[in-house]
Specification:
Shape: globular
Largest sheet: 6 strands, antiparallel
Number of strands: 6
Strand content: 5-15%
Oligomer: single chain
Number of helices: 12
Length: 308
């Protein structure tokens, strides 16, 4: 490649990064939040290996680092810590029974009790959380799931397959989608305060994972698995939206402990409602519990993804 060709190539790459930066930091008041904020993150994440080999000028290096930092933040925090500890990113099933947002499996419970930080891995490394006869760390090093008894170092299973990273119920709502962006929804004090103005009570305990399907490197909606509780028993629901954050569907996902939740007629009333306009609950019956949980889930999506 000649010097002029190389310079032209770098200019095109730098222009692409600048365009990506504009997507990540849109102007306030923009309505196309999901189109503007997320595609660039996924594009950069997919292009990680090429990025490392590009030769870029010092004036642009700072911009690249800043953009790539945002891309890294799009990956769930637990996955980043797990990768730092064991050298690879796990699926959400390392800690959850049915993907991010669902109940914790035995390894997830142990990790939570140990502090949910890097030190927690060391604290529970010799335990056998799933009772399969292998220590947690030995399973993780062998790329077996330390939270699932049927996954062992000799037969780890397919829990690390690309599409195994996304719960099958979420995939079913976006047929044909092969590329996903799991994004941590970690609530700040500002998020909690903003949620209150929308009529929802959120706390740090409501942190979750937002699944964003991508079509042609563009988000086509969102999905969130979340818990509700009725008469002291938990059950789990799935909320999906379109790219404008209008509810596409709310449906029961795991209602084994509250089977009547699967038969509720209330789910239909949420379809077509923007997530910041979801109704508040009245009463304390099962439908009210579902309505309150959907209100919280929709508000979480709004405060984490919509421009202030």
């Amino acid at each position: 490649m000649t010097h002029s060709q190389s310079s032209s190539f770098l200019r095109r790459r730098e222009s692409s990064f600048l365009a990506a930066a504009r997507l990540i930091w849109p102007q306030r008041g923009s309505q196309n939040w999901i189109v503007e904020r997320v595609p660039a993150l996924n594009l950069l994440a997919q292009a990680y290996a090429p990025i490392r080999s590009w030769r870029i000028g010092p004036a642009f290096a700072g911009m690249t680092a800043l953009v790539w930092s945002s891309a890294l933040q799009a990956q769930p925090v637990f996955a980043l810590m797990y990768k730092q500890q064991f050298g690879y990113a796990p699926s959400c099933n390392a800690c959850h029974k049915d993907g991010g947002g669902t109940a914790l499996n035995p390894y997830g419970e142990a990790f939570k009790k140990a502090g949910k930080d890097l030190a927690a891995f060391k604290a529970i490394e010799k335990q056998d959380a799933d009772g399969d006869g292998f220590a947690n760390a030995d399973e993780a090093i062998a790329k077996a799931n330390p939270g699932v008894k049927t996954s062992t170092p000799k037969a780890p299973g397919d829990w690390l397959d690309a599409l195994s990273l996304i719960p099958k119920e979420v995939q079913a709502r976006f047929p044909g989608v092969k590329t996903w962006l799991p994004k941590d929804a970690l609530l700040s004090d500002a998020d909690v305060a903003r949620a209150a103005t929308l009529g929802a009570t959120l706390s740090k305990a409501d942190d979750n994972t937002i699944y964003i399907p991508l079509t042609d490197q563009r988000p086509s909606g969102t999905a969130l698995i979340f818990a509700a509780e009725y008469q002291g028993k938990p059950f789990y629901l799935l909320l999906t939206t379109d790219r404008a954050l209008t509810v596409a569907s709310v449906e029961p996902m795991n209602t084994r402990q509250v089977p009547e939740a699967a038969k509720s007629k209330v789910y239909a009333m949420f379809a077509g409602v923007p997530v910041d306009k979801l109704p508040a609950a009245t009463g304390n019956d099962l439908d009210a519990v579902i309505t309150a949980a959907v209100k919280k889930a929709g508000t979480l999506l709004f405060v984490r993804l919509k421009n202030a």
